[in-house]
Fold this sequence. Notes:
two-stranded antiparallel ribbon, single chain
Amino acid sequence: FALCGFSNAQTMVKPTGAPRTHKERSQPAHREKFGFLEKKKDYVRRARNYHNKQTFLSQLQRKAALKNPDEFAFGMLSSFTREDGETRKLRNHLKRGHDQATKQKQLSYLEMIRAIEHKRAVRSHQENHRIGEKQRSTHTIFADSAEDMASLKERAEEAAAENKQRPRRIKTSADEIASEHRQTQQHAEHLMGGLRSQLIAMEKGTKVKIQEATSKQPAVYKFRKIRKR
């Protein structure tokens, strides 16, 4: 029997030309007021979005129904509830790092003020103790002859006598000025102690306040000992 078939040289002819474009149905002219014609993929996306929102709302309703008003939440530390039930954030919105940097600048400024007032107090005290001292004249007089020297001495003595007879201005006591500078210095030191105590309280680690702050002394903290490698 003879077998009939295609030979290897004979191949199937592929269609030539541009591929066919599958167009989707558009919205009819009399329904253009409803927008574009929704396809199945659009309906699936819209349905999933709707169901996700409904699920989220049901979860919120369940949480609100089972909520315990006396239960602690960390949000209570940074917010408060008004009379109408609305929750508001506290005004203290500064971060720990920013607050520490601000207090460190204030501490540096107070240290500068303390040093300035200390120098002023020491200077006023020294000036007060030099008021009663008799200052020696360091003025040197040159003369060509003994007669000129004698006449210059007489003029100098007359000028000294006139200077003693002049009314002197009453000066403010230097001790009072020094005491004012010392008071300002002590006040700056007191404020510096309070700032140092606040900076210590902001540091990380477990700590306990062993002494409350008073008008004369800042608070004292004790940190838990941590064994370091």
